[in-house]
RNA sequence: GGUCCGUUCGUCUAGGGGUUAGGACAGUAGAUUUUCAUUCUACCAACAGGGGUUCGAUUCCCCUACGGACUACCA
């Protein structure tokens, strides 16, 4: 019988999640949903020195905003709880002991100074790749070189030690990556990685293998930065006797900075000119301890659907011409084979474009609701039907919801000034007189639709011997103050005959003919 | 330095032994519009280089170059 598909997103709570992490979570989620499996969230907090308060909550909030649903995790629990590695601490030791018992791991008592000295010695000797490995361990203080009694003595004395994996000297390690195909690495290029730290916590390498095994993970989808240590993980599965149920690996291409000079990192903060975080993050400067704020996509006005659609396409595509995908469509169409191998750069223009598409696709009523709330905050009240008309008129001009409110201002504020360029070119006694007449007739207009207003205007202008092109810009400036904006007839319709007339009269009074 | 991974328009990418190398974003031009924007149309624009294999390579193989990741008692 086929195993149930189980994937995990396993971030370390050392800060907010950046968009690369979100994409990794997304691909995990898409695969899980596509294959009818489960999505787990596991917090990898085995490094107690790098704990950042709030990071864990941030991660969960960010995933929720993105629409990435977790089936098992610290909030929702599950059959393999706890889902926080620090709380699983007692579970790891036995596996390290098992490895020692089977001769695949050993105790090492070297101090940090010992290690520095070793690396300095090897570097001085021009060894191409200084590392703690099958050669150098013979010169170090560990349970392989020390007499058994001394090892026992050291352990009993409480001497600090770590447990290291005994990586074989000559062995080819290979695995079949779902994205990259066969990857082959020689064991001589891997060092004797620390499995258990001297504080009793496992390192990532041990913890992730033990947890993935215990949690019955079937696919490990993670960033390419893990590729070099994947062979080590394969070795661990083998030595622990779990190779037959080892998950399949898929190493995702990295997300690069826009200039392509390296991978995106959370330390980029706002330096790149666009947010790297889904949600705004309030943190502290690592050195000065000063409070810092990094902007987020949510706060910048991005819709989660647009953000996710864009992110999904950074490294994956469906092979069709379709660009717009809902989460359900992404799930339907996703496949790991179509993830590309090469890294992708971030394209600000394209996220904006996606946002515009999703914003315009929203029902006017929904946009109106947003608009109403925003205007209310500014102390402006607006009738529901009017808010909807404004939203419909203005949304083609908006990238972000906030643009709606900006564009709507003209309906609630009479012009404080008039566009000078248009006035100097288009405003003259004839125009002024015609507009005065138009304003006089407007309040009594029978038809106040956009078409009706236009008909009335045309009629008045004809009587004055003017063409519409000669006055329209002037009229726009008289009504709104600006040279550009949405359709003028619709603006006047929404404003209503009375308000429009008064605005025109005010302009005529203010502007010397 | 060592190990590993990668390389199609400016960007995201499709394609794949014989194609006018396709799409999207951006850019440019035109049309529409009373304006800006929208919309529509068109244009611009790519297989890193060198060797093989082959009747034929952008596609398969090798090398080079370039880029990136990793190289901690961090994940």
TrEMBL record:
Source organism of this protein record: Hymenobacter perfusus
EC number(s) stated in the UniProt entry for this protein: 6.1.1.17
PANTHER family: GLUTAMATE--TRNA LIGASE (PTHR43311), GLUTAMATE--TRNA LIGASE, MITOCHONDRIAL-RELATED (PTHR43311:SF2)
Quaternary structure (record): Monomer.
GO annotation, biological process: glutamyl-tRNA aminoacylation
Entry GO MF terms: ATP binding; glutamate-tRNA ligase activity; tRNA binding; zinc ion binding
GO cellular component, one term: cytosol
Residue interval(s) of motif 'KMSKS' region: 263-267
Principal place of residence: cytoplasm
Protein name: Glutamate--tRNA ligase
Domain of life, per lineage: Bacteria
Keyword Transferase listed: no
Residues annotated for ATP binding in this entry: 266
InterPro entries assigned to the protein according to its UniProt record, in alphabetical order: aa-tRNA-synth_I_cd-bd, aa-tRNA-synth_I_codon-bd_sub2, aa-tRNA-synth_I_CS, aa_tRNA-synth_I_cd-bd_sf, Glu-tRNA-ligase_bac/mito, Glu/Gln-tRNA-synth, Glu/Gln-tRNA-synth_Ib_cat-dom, GluQ/Sye
Pfam family name, one: Anticodon_2
Subcellular locations according to the entry: Cytoplasm
Record key words, sorted: Aminoacyl-tRNA synthetase, ATP-binding, Cytoplasm, Ligase, Nucleotide-binding, Protein biosynthesis
Residue span, Glutamyl/glutaminyl-tRNA synthetase class Ib catalytic domain: 4-272, 295-353
HAMAP family referenced in this protein's UniProt entry, alphabetically: Glu_tRNA_synth_type1 (MF_00022)
Family: Belongs to the class-I aminoacyl-tRNA synthetase family. Glutamate--tRNA ligase type 1 subfamily.
Function per UniProt: Catalyzes the attachment of glutamate to tRNA(Glu) in a two-step reaction: glutamate is first activated by ATP to form Glu-AMP and then transferred to the acceptor end of tRNA(Glu).
Chain location of the short sequence motif 'HIGH' region per the record: 11-21
Span of domain Aminoacyl-tRNA synthetase class I anticodon-binding: 383-507
Catalyzed chemical reaction(s): tRNA(Glu) + L-glutamate + ATP = L-glutamyl-tRNA(Glu) + AMP + diphosphate
Matches recorded under SUPFAM superfamilies: An anticodon-binding domain of class I aminoacyl-tRNA synthetases (SSF48163), Nucleotidylyl transferase (SSF52374)
